[in-house]
Design goal:
mainly alpha; 9 helices
Amino acid sequence: MNSSASTPDSRRRLIRRSSAPSAPDPQPLDKPWWATAVWSGLLAVIALALMTWQVLVSGPFVAWDWSVHEYVDPQVPDGWLLFALDEVSNVGGQRQHTLPVLFAVGLWIAYKWRWFRPLIAICAGLATIFFIGYAIKFGLARTPPADGIDMLHGDGQAFPSGHTANATFTWIILVIVWLGPRGRHPDPIRFRRWLAIAGAWILVTSGLMVLLDYHWISDIPGGWALGALATSATVAVLNAPPTRVAHPSQHEC
C-alpha cells in the first residue's frame, strides 16, 4: 500500500486550510509608511524636551503648579468618594490594569493573524515609556504635591506622569490596532469616533491625577508627550513594510 496516498481525513483538512479566508489586506497608506510615526514622534520629543527643561529651570511652564496644588489640596474628598475616584483613575492609567488589556488584545490579534507584528509593536511602545520615562523620572526626582514641597533631586518621581503616559498610550493604541488602517478591523468612521472617546477618557484620567493632588499640573502634559512618543514607536512598527504574509486562524470572528 502506498504510504503517501492521502486519506479522506487528510483531504478534508487540506480543503479546510485552502478555503480558510486570507488575512485582510491592510488599507493603503496615503503617505510613506514612516511619515506619521517620524513626524509625530519628533513633535513629542520636542515637547517633552521643552517641558523637561522648563521643570529644570522652574520656567513659566511650572508657574501654576503651586497655586493649583493649594486650591485642590483642601478639596480632595475622603471615604468612599475618594476610593471611587481612585478606582476610576486606576482603570484609566495604572499599569496593573492597562498592561493586561494591552497584552490580551495584542495576543488575540497575533493569534487570529498568526503574525506577531501587533504584539511586538505594543511592546515597543511600552519599552519607550519604561526607558525614557524612568530616565527622566530618576534624573529629575521631582517630589509630588503630597510632600508639600516642589523640589528636584529629592525623593520623588512626579515628572512626567507615568499614569498619564500609560493612559495616553493604552487607549489610543487600542483604537489604532483594532480600527486603524493596519488594525484588526479597519474602519475610518469608527476609528475617528473611538479615537475621540479615547481622548475624552484620557482627559478624565489625567484630570483626576491633578484633582486628587497626586501630580503637579505640569506633570500631566509631560505624560501626554511621553505617551504620544510611545504611540509613535508603536505606529512605526505597525506601519513598517511586512516581513511576511499574515495568516489568520481557521475560525474568524
